[in-house]
């Protein structure tokens, strides 16, 4: 089994983050509700995810992890606020977008949208 170490819990991905990851000798990052993915429609769209992936690829870094949902919507889910219910469909749309730009792969034995970061 191989273990990878990534620069993690990043909200704002920029050139400073990429430089720091390279200075540490890391090959990837783990993003936490990244601000480069606004998710205006309540899910991370294919163009948003593809642009983030291309940005990280251009910096020579893999996206080893991507957490949560678009921040404006995650807040509702996290705190049980109105508008929280029904988020599952939008979350699945985000997973499908992530799969379409090769960020995730299906987990063995998991039906539906169960996925892990590549």
Automatic annotation (TrEMBL):
<feature type="region of interest" description="Disordered">
    <location>
        <begin position="82"/>
        <end position="118"/>
    </location>
</feature>
<protein>
    <submittedName>
        <fullName>D-mannonate dehydratase</fullName>
    </submittedName>
</protein>
<feature type="compositionally biased region" description="Basic residues">
    <location>
        <begin position="89"/>
        <end position="98"/>
    </location>
</feature>
